[in-house]
Design brief:
Length: about 120
């Protein structure tokens, strides 16, 4: 039996921090994506996606991460995924061969600086 995803949204300065607990799979990926994108206003510098609490991520979840990152990049906003080394999320991204396509940090404390550095590099 799956454990549905729980999405928590917080605002820290000009960043949106989304923490997802549980599982992201084909049954909920589009709803999770919609709630995340709705939470990021155009004026935000970017989004920190905290996947530390994810117990499961399938290909729908990988597509969600790539889609959200791409949409934000198009809007001129940053995206950083927080996934601890050795976590399921990191393992799935590595298996899918997309871990290099996303900005990934191991701990939450490094994410805001990474977003700002990534944005500075593109401007």
């Amino acid at each position: 039996m799956s454990h549905p995803a729980t999405v928590s949204i917080a605002h820290e300065d000009d960043l949106v921090v989304v923490s997802v607990m549980g599982e992201i799979d084909v049954s909920n990926a589009s709803d999770v994506e919609r709630s995340i994108l709705d939470a990021v206003p155009n004026g935000a510098a970017g989004l920190v996606f905290d996947a530390s609490g994810l117990a499961y991520l399938d290909s729908s979840g990988v597509r969600l991460l790539l889609s959200v990152a791409g949409r934000l990049r198009w809007r001129g906003q940053g995206f950083v995924l927080v996934a601890p080394v050795g976590s399921r999320c990191r393992h799935v991204l590595s298996l899918a061969g997309v871990d290099g396509a996303l900005s990934v940090e191991a701990v939450m404390g490094d994410a805001p600086a990474r977003i700002r550095a990534d944005l500075d590099a593109t401007r």
